[in-house]
Amino acid sequence: MEKTPLVKKLDNQELKNTGFWLSQLFMIISTIVGVYLAAQSGLEQALTFDAYSKMEDNYYLRQSLHAELADNADAIEAYADEFLIRSRPLQEIKNFRPPLDRYVWETMKYNPTTLETPSSLITQARRFYSHSDNLMDRAERRALGANYAGKQLKQLVKKLREQTLPELKRSAEHLKKELSEKGVEIGSLKET
């Protein structure tokens, strides 16, 4: 009876074969290239998604700022007509001064997409808030006549409505159109 060895003798002839080594080398190279291409494609997709997401965020920011400025313009105009132009008593001028909504304006300080908004629009909004506060403060201190301050406020509101608000609206619509041309509908990125 023949004894079978516990360990079979290995045939290492194939390891000496050049074809084996070439196939192994090509397999390693193709794996590296495949991983690189997959990573590159994933990175491109992530960057594209991030860019579109920022554009959508900025669209919402512009729309919100537009609404806030329009509401504040209505409040200031009503205040100017009712209290300042009519030269009401000082206590009424102080008591009925409209509190301006600044939620969006203040939030913009912390929003990373704020600086993607055209600087001219941010400047116009800043000037509107600054000049309207200044005029109302000066009317309350009697540094300006109430009637004159009221007329100045109405001019400020008129400029806002004729220049800033339409520009802000066009700017937001331009973003929406640009996204739509790239196949992204507003709101669709927030749903994913």
Written overview of the protein:
The chain is mainly α. It has helices at residues 13-16, 18-84, 90-95, 103-107, 119-140, 146-181, 188-191. α2 (18-84) packs antiparallel against α6 (146-181) and α5 packs antiparallel against α6 (146-181). It is rod-shaped and about 120 Å long. The model has no long low-confidence stretch (mean pLDDT 88).
User: SSE string, helix = H, strand = E?
Assistant: HHHHHHH
Number of helical segments?
7
Q: Which outline best applies?
A: rod-shaped
Total beta-strand segments: 0
Largest sheet: none
The radius of gyration is 34 Å
Properties at a glance:
transmembrane; 0% strand; transmembrane helix; Chemotaxis methyl-accepting receptor HlyB-like 4HB MCP domain-containing protein; mainly alpha; 192 residues; 75% helix; membrane
Gist of the model:
With 192 residues, the protein is mostly helical. 75% of the residues lie in helices and 0% in strands.
Topology of helices and strands:
Blueprint: H1 13-16, H2 18-84, H3 90-95, H4 103-107, H5 119-140, H6 146-181, H7 188-191
Helix pairs in contact: 2-6, 5-6
